[in-house]
Specification:
heterodimer, A: about 500 residues, mainly alpha, two-stranded antiparallel sheet, 21 helices, 2 strands, B: about 120 residues, Helix Hairpins, about 70% helix, CPA3_Na-H_Antiporter_D (chain A), ND/Mrp_TM (chain A), membrane (chain A), NADH_UbQ_OxRdtase (chain A)
Amino acid sequence: MQHLILLPLILPLLGGLLMLLPPLTESRVRQRNFALVLSAATMLTSVLLVQQAQQGVIGVYAVGDWAAPFGIVMVADRLSTMLLLLTSVLAFCSLLYTFGPRDEEGSFFQPLLQFQILGINGAFLTGDLFNLFVFFEILLIASYGLLMFGGGKTRTRAGLHYVILNLAGSAIFLFALGILYGTLGTLNIADLAQKVQQLDPAETPLVRAGGLMLLIVFGLKAAMLPLQFWLPAAYAASTPAVAALFAIMTKVGIYAILRVFTVIFGDAAGPLSHIAGPWLWPLGLMTILIGAIGVLASQDLRRLVANLIIVSVGTLLAVIALQREDATAAALYYLLHSTLISGGLFLLADLIARQRGKVGDRLVPGRGVGQGRLLGSLFFIGAIAVIGMPPLAGFVGKVLMLSAASSVAEMSWLWPLVLGSSLVALITLSRAGSTLFWNPAGKPVEIMRANPVQLLATVLLLSMPLLLSVFAGPVTQMVAATAQQLHDVQGQIGSVLQPVTHLVEVK
Amino acid sequence: MEALYAVCVGVLTAAGVFLLLRGRTFPVVVGLTLLSYGVNLFLFSTGRLNDSAAAVLGSGSDHADPLPQALVLTAIVIGFAMTAFVVILAMRARGDLGNDHVDGRVPELVLESEERS
């Protein structure tokens, strides 16, 4: 069962490769079914991994049996398995959505989707910064293909910005890795955490520079303030299933920030502990602000959802900047909720757009929605969840985050911004909802029905906040344990860098 | 050697960043390439510069750090793939958008100054 850790990587890798072979490329039906089975298998693996990790043991897989500081290790602790499960649920739903009519726009969509999942899973599982870079590149090159899928002017323009920005980000990533390797002599996260504690004071500024350069890169992936402008255009331009899957992409950046700046530069790092906090706090707060302005200014539904993602990223970053266990736990709960709900809203926006004919998802009075009652209720549930109104999970998440701010200074910044952005979201979404559903300029030409499979995918994602709030007790316990494990730096160092017992002396 | 090496990395990076900030796709692509050269040289130097060490573990007592070489190799492969992709994308954008500006349309200021000259 120890090899289970590698399965979330091997399944999409081999599956994606198999899908490039003629027996599967010839028939779209076969390709889809194969992808669905594959995705279900990945989800099952993540469930098993989560079960394993919930016992509190950190699963370490030494690839090729080379022990930790020298070889490549995959680390499956509570945090990474939780995010694996989140990814596979989201990927399953967005895969289900491609079973509808939109998939006909080109071939090789399914393999690209699998490679994207490979990259995301790898980024969550790796215990090594250079492999984090490699998996980032895998998920990026797949996302370039997915973003451009179907072609068209807006996609090309958004894609060009996205690709160039990310390539520049990769260059900065490599510079940062070079600095860290040059000064600390290792790239294994646990080993880095250990080496930072014993750092020569003369080399502190260099390591600090390297660490903060990593923050730039992860901030770019997470859409942190000065680096967030690519997101609305890119997400609004891509096909709906891709946009839904991309809801996890900003969270990969947040995961990397969480991992690097609580483990390597965490409590025990001496002069370098919490170096990201002074940057994350103001930038996170300003990201909420700019996201809220974007929400108010959005002209169409998908751009609105994309801006809501920026708001949620800002909230997460600001809460993570507190760098305390309870704050991290609250952020993790909100992360689960916001990823699932924004994925669901992207799918719903497409369902609505397709029934409105030419107007699409633009927020102007147009032809009425064919299935107004059904989609309207779904929109209502989604809106309540994403705003953070009771009783859905967004409310629980926001309450947890607000109560994580303890000092007056923290409260006086975090509370107005989080509550204000919720108010802005409330206003904009109710305005959007009344334009879309209550103010039709004409009757729908024919009663259009949403594709049942696509509807199922949307309902699945939109019902997740409901589940998260019904099971709020166990889930909050789980995220609390996750945060505790993440902040326990010595524990991680201990379990990843186990003493090497079977090194054989070679003459 | 160290000074020359450092200057090389610095010049490549500076030129790369300068070109990256240009408005047309071709200079941007060249800028990305230069930047990745700078990065690769920099990564290579993190194993310390040494002119007599064996590259692979041999019988000699002095050998170079093999890890940066592995890192550089990976970074080069990935860098090439990404450059190839961005070149194709730039050509596609030129075809789709009708011009080679990174924003997809040439700003009016630039058009005016080009007309004047």
